[in-house]
Design brief:
By secondary structure, this protein is of the alpha+beta class. It contains four helices and six strands. Strands 1, 2, 3, 4, 5 and 6 form a six-stranded antiparallel sheet that branches. Strand 2 and strand 3 form a beta hairpin.
């Protein structure tokens, strides 16, 4: 049987332990709150790029900031096709340069404007229609990493008409340069741009026609 004094001492000891426990819990809660606050502060207005490969059947290791080659290839093909979609080259070539300016570098824009002016001065744009259709499926070998970007090889079926008369019908290989630039995400969410080509497109073979 404990004496009165022993009971008082035991009660004080229990209360001291409880007070210590509450202090530890309070410190942990405050630490957690501060950690959450810091994370939210650092994450404000931050965008992390995640590029997914086309086939996730067996899983994939994904790192922020890395761009899958399939995305590079798709971007290069889509923008090249849009730049070369003309109903009337005199109007549409120039209009496309402006319309897709966020997806091309300033250097490539100047390059295209020079090409436009040269063809315009030669009278080769009036009533000229053009379209590109991708010929082959994507392969890993179509995209290679370079020191300042990527080199993308794409074969297109190119058709052109002047005043409704067939002018070109051929397979042509484009060597497209793609770069990553830190630009406005609202105008270009990919951050990718076409740059001045590595070389001129190479004609592979004329398509058989009945004209």
């Amino acid at each position: 049987m404990l004496t009165k004094e022993e009971l008082i001492d035991t009660d004080k000891l229990i209360k001291a332990k409880e007070k210590k426990m509450y202090s530890i819990i309070l410190v942990l809660v405050l630490a957690l709150f501060v950690s959450i606050l810091v994370i939210l502060t650092l994450s404000t207005n931050k965008t992390y790029r995640i590029s997914l490969p086309p086939n996730l059947e067996f899983g994939a290791t994904i790192n922020t900031g890395e761009i899958d080659h399939f995305e590079i290839y798709s971007f290069a093909g889509a923008i090249t096709q849009q730049l070369n979609l003309w109903k009337d080259g005199k109007v549409d070539f120039r209009k496309n340069i402006d319309k897709y300016h966020a997806y091309i570098t300033p250097e490539y824009r100047a390059y295209l404007l020079d090409e436009y002016k040269n063809l315009l001065n030669l009278g080769q744009l009036n009533g000229r229609e053009r379209s590109l259709q991708e010929e082959d499926m994507y392969q890993i070998s179509n995209v290679s990493k370079q020191s300042d970007g990527w080199l993308v090889q794409i074969v297109f079926h190119q058709q052109e008409h002047i005043n409704n008369q067939r002018f070109k019908d051929l397979r042509i290989q484009h060597s497209i340069k793609v770069v990553y630039r830190n630009i406005d995400a609202q105008s270009n969410p990919w951050g990718l741009q076409l740059d001045v080509p590595w070389k001129q497109p190479v004609r592979l073979m004329e398509q058989a026609t009945n004209d």
